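Fold it.
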Amino acid sequence: MSTIDLTGKVAVVTGSGRGLGLAYAQALAAAGASVVVNDVDEAVAEQAVKSIEEAGGRAVAEAVAVGTTEAADRLVARAVAEFGRLDIMVTNAGVLRDKVLWKMTDDDFDTVIGVHLKGTFTCARAAAVRMREQGEGGRLILVGSPAGQRGNFGQTNYAAAKAGIAAMTRTWSMELARAGVTVNAIVPVAATAMTETIPVFAPYVEAMRGGETLPDFLRKGEGFGSAEDCAALLPFLASAAAADVTGQCIGIGGDKLALWSHPQETSVAYADGGWSPETIADVWHTSVGREPQTVGIPAPKFPEGQGT
């Protein structure tokens, strides 16, 4: 029998009409929570609600584009109106406008920042206000990405937003501690509409959707699997079992669960009286800069004869 019981809890999951968001909403509902499903497409949101109800869960749909204060307030108000309270806010909504720096437009940048970063901020703020008023604690579960931890080619806007979400996670975990509200970011890796466009993954994603099991080098080595593989983390973080877990960035995907480190100094050097450009140059390659940090999401490590 499961010890993760969210009966009586109420969750909002933004961007939960399909993909990872839908898997999150379904997992929370399966654990007993009532869920406000959100999507920009009302028909998609209603279909997601139907899937939850058919499985015995409780859910309602709220179709609104995340990013504004008004949208965030609507989502929280809907949860309270339908279910009487709000305990869990999952900020999953997002869009992509991938381009290299010199080709990215203001609109490309602003759109992604507006949905991912400002949308996370406005929804978390509205939820925090309600949770503090209730006085019974709560859970903010923000959705990050490996791109926000390490950067990713062609994703200036997305990587910046996800890095900001990691920083907000740490900041809000301190600010909301006294209110009993935990704040964590999940860093999921899964077969989605985005990853299936990556040529090296495409045949494996297609095989998985045909019922085949992904090989261990993907499920374990790369931490890559289905959206449902990532969803187990949500009920855990929303439950009493994770009451002492806050301020963390937690990766999940395939068979892999991981804790991401916080940024920290990896090497230091000192100069009496301070540094000049020349003294930095003299010691850089033999001290602080001896082992520079890598950037980017590592390429998949395919077994010999597989992949490209």
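The longest helix spans residues 106-134.
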